[in-house]
Every structure is written in structure tokens, then in C-alpha cells.
Amino acid sequence: MSSSSPARTLIGLLCALGLLLAACGNDDGAVSPPPAEEPETATDHDHSHDHDHDHDHATLMEVDYEPVPTIEIATHLDPMSGVNLEVTTTGFTLAPERASTDPVDGEGHMHIYLDGVKLRRLYGHWAHLDITEPGDHEIRVELSANNHAVLAVNGDKLDATAVVTIPGDAEPVAAAQEGGGAIELELADGKPVEGVKRYRVGAGDTVSIVVAGDTADELHIHGYDLVVEFSPGQPGTITFEADIPGIFEVESHHRGDLVMELQVG
Questions:
Q1: Does residue 39 sit in helix, strand or coil?
Q2: pLDDT 10s digit of each residue in the chain, 265 long?
Q3: N or C: which end of the chain has fewer CB within 10 A?
Q4: Cis peptide before 235 (omega within 30 of 0)
Q5: pLDDT value at residue 94
């Protein structure tokens, strides 16, 4: 059998190449790249704790184990200056060496708040707070997991609050509801006519606040997360049990102005 001529062999190779390009080409005659591989679908790993957020946007971690940790705090005026804070816990082990790592049941650290402002982490059962301004101050300490989520039960933070009084001249605090009366608040252009005052009530007292104003707005009691509407000629009244100790800001909800403070305890 005779061998194919070089010219015929070259023609055959060119034809085969042309068919291959036609099969791979798109409508514009360009060669299409091979299809990209589908990316792997990311899946969430199962966690033993549920995370959600409260109205302060703090991450909460529900305690679903036993024993449920507890926390109590006590304040002691330092003879030189400030306050010595004593923290007692049960069912909770301080693990500063594992801060910012994965949560472990029953261990973590604590966070300190002064007058609603976060100060720092707490890795021990005692701390000195350099509070020098005379008057009443709210100290709050919350239990946190290693990953800084606040421990909670049924959405309620595991924390403790105390009010400490620093001796000296301070702004006077109005005793509220002496003789069973209500706290009466009159606003003009969203601001209290008599200026911002702090009212003190006892823990467990039933508190009534009557607010009147020349503009429509809502009164918002922080900490208790209570709101009441009012408008010109239509005062608003809100009554509740003061069962959370501390110092709480009360604001006009829409304007965001501080109109009074409520001290419980």
C-alpha cells in the first residue's frame, strides 16, 4: 500500500483543526473557555449556644448548661480615693488566658460598666475604680464568655448592679413620689422647663411619671425600655415597678434629648 503524500496529510490535519475550532467556538467565533467549577457551598457549623442581640446590640449567649452561673457585687469606699469593687460568682471560672477564644461552658471573664459606659474587662474578683466625682454612680458587672458574648438566661443578662455614693458636694437629687405623688415632667420644645433633674425612688417602688409637652413625642425610659406617647393637651402617664436598681436616663424618644434621670435604690 502506497504512503499518503505530504500535501494530503497536511490538508487532513488542517481540516481536523478547523472542525475542532468550530465545535469549541461561540457565536462570535471566539473560543469559549472551559466552564468554571461550581464553588463549594459554605455551611454553618453547629454551635452549642444560640447568639442573638438585645436592644443595646450586645451579643448574648444563652446558658444551656448546669449550674447556671450567678454574680453579686459589693462596693467599698477606699480610704484614699475611689471605690474598691468586690465581685462574687458561682458556677463560673475566670479564664483570662483564654480570652477572645471559643466559648467553654462555665468560664470566661467579666466586663465593668460605670454610669452606663463600659470601662474594661475584669479578670479577678476585686478591682479599684478611680471614681472621684461626688454623688451617686452606677456600677454594673456582667459575665462574659471567652468570646466576649454576654451570658444570659431567657434573654436576661447575667449581671449585677450597685449604686455607690462618693462623698462631697454634688447635684441635689429630688426624692420622688413623697406622699404618693407622681413625677411631673413638663417639656417645652422637647426640653424640661425646670432643667434636667435626677429623681430617686426606692427599689421595688411603684413609679408614675406624667409628661406634658408642647410638641408630640414619646418618653423613653432606658434600662426598663418603656415608652409612653404625649402631645399638646394630651399628657402621657407611665406607671411601672422600679425593680431594676441603677441610674437610668429618660429621653424624648424622637428628639433624643435627655429630660431626666431616674435613680432606683
A1: coil
A2: 444 455 555 555 555 555 444 444 444 444 444 444 333 333 333 333 333 333 345 699 999 999 999 999 999 999 888 999 999 999 999 999 999 999 999 999 999 999 888 889 999 999 999 988 888 899 999 999 999 999 999 999 999 999 998 887 655 555 554 444 688 899 998 888 988 888 888 888 888 999 999 999 999 998 888 999 999 999 999 999 988 888 888 998 788 788 988 888 7
A3: N
A4: no
A5: 97
Query: What distance in Å separates the CA atoms of residue 66 and residue 209, rounded to the nearest whole number?
Result: 41
Nearest CA to 159 out of 64, 71, 60 is that of 71
The three cell numbers of residue 30 are: 471566539
Contact 147, 49 (CB under 8 A): no
Distance CA 142, CA 140 (A): 7
- In terms of Cα–Cα distance, which of 161, 165, 167 is closest to 203? 161
By DSSP bridging, strand 258-264 and strand 246-252 are: antiparallel
Q: How many residues does the chain have?
A: 265
Contacts of 227 (CB under 8 A, 6+ apart): 218, 219, 220, 221, 238, 253
Cβ(205)–Cβ(230) below 8 Å? no
**Cα 189-193-194 angle, rounded to 5 deg:** 155
Query: CA-CA distances (angstroms) from residue 53 to 58, 61, 102, 106, 145?
Result: 6, 9, 18, 21, 15
Neighbours of 97 (CB within 10 A): 8
